[in-house]
Design brief:
The chain is mostly helical. It has 2 domains: 3-123, TerB-like (Orthogonal Bundle); 131-320, no CATH class. Helix content is 66%, strand content 0%. It has 16 helices and no strands. The chain has helices at residues 3-17, 25-37, 47-55, 61-66, 71-86, 93-106, 110-128, 137-142, 154-173, 179-197, 204-213, 218-231, 255-272, 279-297, 301-308, 313-320. It starts with a helix and ends with a helix.
């Protein structure tokens, strides 16, 4: 893939990120941080440059599409855009309109795009269909007060967090465009399960707000994965959904392990303490836990790579669902 095509695909991904016009300031700031921090080799476009072009509206969708000549790369660009639109929820009308325009501009048929649209929707719907059961008046009054004891041993909770972290680290190593989207679903499921263990019935709105308050953007996470894989040469011309192939960057650091581990440990502290942390303390605690998690991830590199070699799409969808 040429540098011009890389720039074009990154441009389309960022245009998709802002297609709904509804991203709150925290998510926009998270995307900006990702763009500024993610640097590739000197001979490929830097995400920060592309971000500024999109933000200042210096580039049109038609310009980006025109720079992509390879048919597989055009399909890849569409796949990534679909996943970006679905990363923080199932796509809305503005995002559907953007994707319809993109599909037409790329010259793709419904037959070529139906599979990725269906798979992305299944991943977006699986964890985000959570609806909390109504709380009784007594439970509602006490649900946010005082510390709580989980309904299973803390050691089991820690194993659950570690297991999800290893899986998410493995997903990061897969070259397929949909793999990184499942990372978000598993993080949402993880927070839900931890909250439930401490007696809190959580709905999708609360979980998304909790993750955002901690400073972990949903859309920005997926944009970061795109940038990391694309600038590292991992995405190449791969298109068509989840597969078993392991990308050539498999020996690299799995940053999603650390993000997931820190988020799980943060959720454990937050719900054990009766949801008493304010925004500043949540973010400060998450950043501290993230440092620890990055130091820990090297111990599990072998398990992460092994897990990446055994994952398939049906497993991933099943893992993200909340019964």
């Amino acid at each position: 893939m040429s540098p011009n095509e890389q720039r074009a695909i990154l441009t389309i991904a960022l245009l998709a990120a802002f297609a709904d016009g509804m991203k709150d300031e925290r998510e926009r700031e998270a995307i900006k941080r990702v763009a500024e921090s993610l640097a590739g080799p000197s001979d490929v476009p830097q995400l920060a440059e592309v971000y500024q072009e999109v933000l200042l509206k210096r580039v049109e969708l038609s310009q980006a599409v025109a720079a992509i000549s390879d048919a597989a790369h055009r399909q890849l660009a569409y796949e990534l855009a679909v996943c970006v639109c679905d990363a923080d929820d199932q796509r809305n009308e503005a995002e559907r309109a953007f994707l319809d325009e993109l599909k037409q501009a790329l010259g793709l048929t419904d037959a070529l795009t139906a599979n990725v649209e269906r798979e992305a929707e299944s991943l977006a719907a699986a964890p985000l269909s959570i609806h909390a059961a109504p709380l009784s008046p007594a439970m509602a009054a006490s649900s946010s007060l005082g510390s709580k004891t989980p309904n299973l041993p803390e050691a089991d909770l820690d194993k659950y967090i570690l297991s999800h972290s290893i899986v998410n680290g493995a997903l990061e190593l897969l070259p397929q465009s949909l793999a990184s989207m499942a990372i978000i679903g598993l993080q949402i499921k993880l927070v839900y399960r931890i909250g439930k263990a401490y007696g809190h019935e959580l709905d999708k709105g609360h979980i998304r707000e909790f993750i955002a308050t901690a400073g972990v953007g949903l859309t920005s996470q997926y944009v970061e994965q795109i940038g990391r894989k694309l600038l590292g040469g991992l995405l190449g011309g791969i298109a068509g959904g989840i597969g078993r192939g392991l990308g050539r960057a498999a020996t690299g650091a799995a940053f999603s392990f650390a993000t997931t581990y820190a988020l799980g440990q943060l959720a454990k502290r937050y719900y054990a303490g009766g949801r008493q942390m304010n925004q500043a303390l949540l973010r400060e605690t998450y950043e501290s836990l993230l440092v620890q998690a990055k130091q820990l991830q090297g111990q599990y590199a072998g398990e992460i790579e092994q897990k990446a070699r055994t994952l398939d799409f049906n497993q991933i969808v099943s893992m993200t669902k909340v019964p």
